[in-house]
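Purpose: get a first structural picture of the assembly so the mutagenesis plan has something to point at.
Setup: two entries, given in the order below. No constraints added.
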Amino acid sequence: MAPGPTPTVPALPEEADAGARLQEWTCPVPLRDHEHVILGHGGGGRLQAELIEHLILPAFGGRTLTRLADAAVLDAGRGRLALTSDAHVVHPLEFPGGDIGALSVHGTINDLAMMGARPLALTAALIIEEGLAIDVLGRIITSMAAAARSAGVEVVAGDTKVVERGSADGLFITTTGLGVLADGVNIGPERARAGDVVLVSGPIGDHGIAILSVREGLEFAGELASDSAPLHELVAAMLAAAPGAVRVLRDPTRGGLASALNEIANSSAVAIELQEREIPVREIVASASSLLGLDPLYVPCEGRLTAIVDPGGVEAVLEAMRREPLGVEACVVGSVSDGPAGLVTGRTGIGGVRVIDLQIGEQLPRIC
Amino acid sequence: MAPGPTPTVPALPEEADAGARLQEWTCPVPLRDHEHVILGHGGGGRLQAELIEHLILPAFGGRTLTRLADAAVLDAGRGRLALTSDAHVVHPLEFPGGDIGALSVHGTINDLAMMGARPLALTAALIIEEGLAIDVLGRIITSMAAAARSAGVEVVAGDTKVVERGSADGLFITTTGLGVLADGVNIGPERARAGDVVLVSGPIGDHGIAILSVREGLEFAGELASDSAPLHELVAAMLAAAPGAVRVLRDPTRGGLASALNEIANSSAVAIELQEREIPVREIVASASSLLGLDPLYVPCEGRLTAIVDPGGVEAVLEAMRREPLGVEACVVGSVSDGPAGLVTGRTGIGGVRVIDLQIGEQLPRIC
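Result (structure tokens, whole complex):
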């Protein structure tokens, strides 16, 4: 966290509605009555100290963060560590089912979970555009803190920079996750092999379609919501159900399920065939995709995973998934073969086969 | 690193001039002949895979990064870990003595070093504005990789996002550092106590004045250079010289030496008195500061530190510092007392005393 005087640390707010918390972080000093962020909030002086003391620390609490040293110190015991960083630039900042704050926590926890790692700590670096409403910043920070608390992971360090109006788009959040890998866990995109089974944890495309519908002002936008969620508990259940059976995990974010599977097929030098009619897609997501000219296979999710599993462990893994709230709709959608390395194909409803290639560029910019 | 197919990993480039490297990362495919970044370079598709394969991986090399999994896996042995994140938004992107790439590596290594931690690994998350010249991006990434290599720290994971023209200012880089703390090392802003001595490692203010002079187009800008440098080896030498004697370390970045010492005085509930004429400031930095109406005490450094040291260990620590390239000009600049908690004062050349307060807002925006 950026320099500032040691604050009198407010008590960690209990789980309460965001409105009540909004009041908390404006007390006792209402950020010098600022309603918008100004450059001085990033300057390492009194204004920044106030922003951190009255808005950021009350939201996150936590003993490590409030020490305000240059780095957080953690006791990790022994073992292998997983480390990941993600820059979040989603537009708009708030959307049905989430906001950039919660999304940044979920996205980073999920990147750790996809390695089979248990999340140990998060850091958050904010780049704020001058003029952002303090109110909006407060809601997003509160939501971010709630997401971290609900996932059982502490935000232990951070940084806040403010840039001039026009030099950023509201708010960018880069989150880093540090995780611990249990002994024997060995998951990676290069581990798929012929005969393995391809699973998904639930319906795909909700996140991308929810955001795009809001941007496009579609009428049914209100019925759509992002699937943004932390997957580490689902993964823990899967790994416990059949030790060694889960070979690859991936959350299909940018580029969707198609890109995630292309990447796996490439890394493992195998072919993957999907049964397209087995892939769960909510009806409203399917309609909206069709209206917007999008293929749901390429639309990002933020709370789903795809897994490549040894055939011997599939039943146990599926059962464990379906007992978890985020895996109720888990199912088999395809299989791995020693066909052409890197090739992903889909068998369509009428029995044809199409190549599911990596897209060239950006189907949905600023989606996460 | 963002999703993409497993690349054929080019050999790690040897230390060579940046020009030669610039050629390397444009081979074999010249990024589809793009001269500027387009949105598709952030979309998780082929274009992004090419950017990563042909520009980012050849620069950083490293076995961990090239695995392109969702998170890097590290073996940290046992012990305490330090974790820090910094968002870098410096303007301009390139300046005398450095650029945003090298600065982001140095700044993050320094945050770890200020806890007494040995850097273990870095991550880098880039937010790129559409339209940034690939040439500029290449120079910065090459410089970033050179800074990491020269400091002996590997960049193990990363992320790349591209936002529309006007939604960012060229390039922002958020770096995260993971470090290991040796047993017995216990350094923190709350550990200063009456009788301790205040050191600085060298002349202050070079970084801030170098950047500001370029921005303002001052004639003597060419004679100024940022002090941007990694301080972990200097710190290791200090800690080895007198175990337990170094109580607080701080790199005076935003807000300069004045803010760093205010923060320490607050955290430790002590007073600090500086002998202002003992504080080293290069003549050209002093002249430029005076011209620009700035007090060098508030001007950021990126390769200097201030230390609070037990009086019994000061001689040994100073000797060790002066043997290191980055500590040749190390000296004593003040002392700690049990005066009013949080008060920092300066004894001026003519014997007067002034209060050195925390500034209110932003003296030098976008300086790091």
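The first strand of chain A starts at residue 72 and ends at 75.
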